[in-house]
């Protein structure tokens, strides 16, 4: 019997074992995900190749490497990489962080500036364009060894959009703009809302928690949990004089290729250009000026979207941009089915005034920072889900909320968009028989 069998039709044990891990039934308006998709080591191993190995992955932002020789070290899809601004060309280069001699990591610092990168093991030395420049005892190598072929290995595909640097390990992947689909327009809103030029604020928030990475994807644009999980934050806002009676109104949007967003109006302020009492009366003139500047440059309708509409954007598979009370860029990778390593940065307008930057960072730390109202709550909730899966007895997660109507921000259409793309990429690796 097929996965889409109607109500009242019985399935055999053999039928159930062959069901896909994602069951999408528009007839009965049920969408389910088998919990082994969140616990199975076999599924995790397949994801490394079929999802992280076949997608465009976020590496960093061009503002991190503005000067020739500037570099940052990153884990991209679980692989050690580094991004460097070429000294000769000025290009953004992304290399596999491994020496072509015997494999040791070449770039050993998280960030800095250097014209050359020397492997500490045997002192092979490479320049910022990846060329092998130094080999101790080069004359000991007989003919046949081509040193020009032993430069650092570049990532197969590298493209940028509005300062965001993406790489892919799949040489045949579609171009980045095609891949981004509708997410491109939301990246434009974020950058244009920063006045057209943005930078990552120095410093990052890095942490791990005990849950499956796809739970963090769901959580990142799940409007349904906000009122219950983050009740303390809303009480905090009320104590400061924020009027929450209007509630949170918005929608979920499938942007194509697994990307999705929830966008919503809310009563809290945004340092971008929406004043509230929390920011203090002395900040009102500057914030009002920023709002007027955006309206003059982009028109009132677009300025409204930039300043008064919040958005939680997921770019498949593992990039999250929370453009809310602050703009947070977050990426993550799972070293195991039940562990996620997370890195987050704050994005801000270039040349922002010190006072406004301080308010922006306060907003980030208050809600999404290490000790904020949201991040610890979310990590606790996702770890609780992962613990609950070990209980057994329940096989499926239900993600049907809002099917059959125009999705609102508290529905789950955005999650279904992600899971449909995940199922497509995983193919037969996401059949229950293969997940055992």
UniProtKB/TrEMBL annotation:
<dbReference type="InterPro" id="IPR017941">
    <property type="entry name" value="Rieske_2Fe-2S"/>
</dbReference>
<dbReference type="InterPro" id="IPR001663">
    <property type="entry name" value="Rng_hydr_dOase-A"/>
</dbReference>
<dbReference type="InterPro" id="IPR036922">
    <property type="entry name" value="Rieske_2Fe-2S_sf"/>
</dbReference>
<dbReference type="Pfam" id="PF00848">
    <property type="entry name" value="Ring_hydroxyl_A"/>
</dbReference>
<protein>
    <submittedName>
        <fullName>Aromatic ring-hydroxylating dioxygenase subunit alpha</fullName>
    </submittedName>
</protein>
<feature type="domain" description="Rieske">
    <location>
        <begin position="57"/>
        <end position="167"/>
    </location>
</feature>
<dbReference type="InterPro" id="IPR015881">
    <property type="entry name" value="ARHD_Rieske_2Fe_2S"/>
</dbReference>
<dbReference type="Pfam" id="PF00355">
    <property type="entry name" value="Rieske"/>
</dbReference>
<keyword id="KW-0411">Iron-sulfur</keyword>
<keyword id="KW-0408">Iron</keyword>
<keyword id="KW-0520">NAD</keyword>
<keyword id="KW-0560">Oxidoreductase</keyword>
<keyword id="KW-0001">2Fe-2S</keyword>
<keyword id="KW-0479">Metal-binding</keyword>
<comment type="similarity">
    <text>Belongs to the bacterial ring-hydroxylating dioxygenase alpha subunit family.</text>
</comment>
<dbReference type="InterPro" id="IPR015879">
    <property type="entry name" value="Ring_hydroxy_dOase_asu_C_dom"/>
</dbReference>
<dbReference type="GO" id="GO:0051213">
    <property type="term" value="F:dioxygenase activity"/>
</dbReference>
<keyword id="KW-0223">Dioxygenase</keyword>
């Amino acid at each position: 019997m097929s996965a889409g069998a109607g109500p009242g039709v019985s399935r055999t044990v053999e039928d159930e074992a062959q069901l896909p891990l994602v069951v999408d039934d528009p007839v009965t308006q049920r969408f389910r995900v088998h919990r082994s998709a969140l616990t199975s080591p076999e599924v995790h191993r397949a994801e490394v190749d079929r999802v992280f190995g076949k997608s465009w992955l976020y590496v960093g932002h061009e503002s991190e490497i503005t000067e020739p020789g500037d570099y940052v070290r990153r884990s991209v899809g679980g692989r050690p990489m580094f991004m460097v601004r070429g000294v000769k060309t000025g290009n953004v280069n992304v290399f596999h962080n491994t020496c072509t001699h015997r494999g040791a990591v070449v770039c050993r610092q998280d960030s800095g500036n250097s014209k050359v990168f020397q492997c500490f093991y045997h002192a092979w030395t490479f320049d910022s364009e990846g060329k092998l420049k130094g080999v101790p005892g080069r004359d000991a190598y007989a003919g046949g060894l081509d040193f020009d072929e032993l430069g650092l290995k570049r990532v197969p595909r590298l493209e940028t959009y509005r300062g965001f640097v993406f790489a892919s390990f799949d040489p045949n992947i579609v171009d980045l703009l095609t891949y981004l689909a509708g997410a491109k327009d939301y990246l434009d809103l974020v950058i244009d809302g920063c006045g057209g030029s943005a930078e990552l604020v120095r410093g990052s928030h890095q942490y791990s928690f005990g849950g499956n990475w796809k739970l963090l994807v769901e959580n990142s644009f799940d409007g349904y949990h906000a009122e219950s999980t983050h009740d303390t934050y809303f009480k905090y806002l009320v104590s400061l004089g924020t009027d929450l009676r209007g509630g949170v109104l918005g929608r979920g949007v499938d942007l194509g290729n697994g990307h999705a967003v929830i966008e919503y109006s809310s009563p809290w302020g945004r340092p971008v250009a929406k004043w509230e009492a929390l920011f203090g009366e002395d900040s009102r003139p500057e914030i009002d000026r920023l709002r007027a500047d955006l309206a003059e440059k982009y028109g009132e309708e677009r300025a409204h979207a930039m300043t008064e509409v919040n958005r939680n954007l997921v770019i498949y598979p593992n990039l999250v941009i929370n453009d809310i009370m602050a703009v947070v860029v977050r990426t993550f990778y799972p070293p195991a089915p039940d562990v996620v390593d997370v890195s987050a940065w704050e994005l801000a307008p270039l040349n922002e005034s010190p006072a406004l930057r301080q308010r922006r960072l306060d907003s980030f730390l208050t809600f999404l920072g290490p000790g904020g109202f949201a991040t610890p709550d979310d990590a606790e909730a996702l770890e609780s889900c992962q613990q609950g899966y070990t209980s057994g007895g329940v096989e499926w997660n239900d993600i049907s909320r809002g099917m059959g109507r125009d999705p609102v921000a508290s529905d789950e259409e955005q999650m279904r968009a992600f899971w449909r793309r995940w199922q497509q990429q995983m193919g037969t690796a996401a059949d229950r028989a293969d997940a055992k």
